[in-house]
Amino acid sequence: LKEEIRRGFARLEDPLAGLLAMLESSSDWKGKGHSLVYCITTELQLWIKAHPAVPQSGTKLKKLQARVLGMLSQCPANLLDPLISIYQLHTADRNSLLEHVSHLYLQGNYKEAAILSIKLKLQPDQDVEKMCTPLLLQDKANLVEDYVAEYPDLQRKLLQTLDMWCDPSFNIRDITRPYQGLSKYKPEKFNRRVLSKLVFRLLERFNVDSALCPNVINQRHLRTLNYLFYKRFVEKTMTEENWADHIQSTVGENRWLQGHLVQSLLRHCDARGVARWAQHCRVPPEMLPQAVAEELQKLHIQDRVEEVTKASDNYEASKKKDYYQLPIPRENIHFLQTWKETLQCWEKVLQPGQVVGVDMEWKPSFGMVGKPRVALLQLALKDEVFLLDLPRLLEQAEAEGEKEKLPHFIQMLYSDAAITKLGYGMSGDLSSLAATCYALKDTEKQMQGVLDLLAVDKQVNGLSPEHSHEEREVRQPEKGLSLLVQHVLGKPLDKTEQLSNWEKRPLREEQILYAASDAYCLLEIYERLCKDPKSFGLGSDLTDSLVGKQSKKPRAKKQLNKQEAPSPSGQERLGPRTEPSCPPAPISPREFSVVCDNMLQGLGRYLRCLGVDVRLLDNEDDHRKAAEIARQEGRVILTSGRPYQTLRSQVGEGRCFYVNCSEKAKEQALQVLKHFNVQVSLSDIFSRCQ
Question: Where is the composition biased (Basic residues) (predicted)?
Answer without folding.
Answer: 550-560
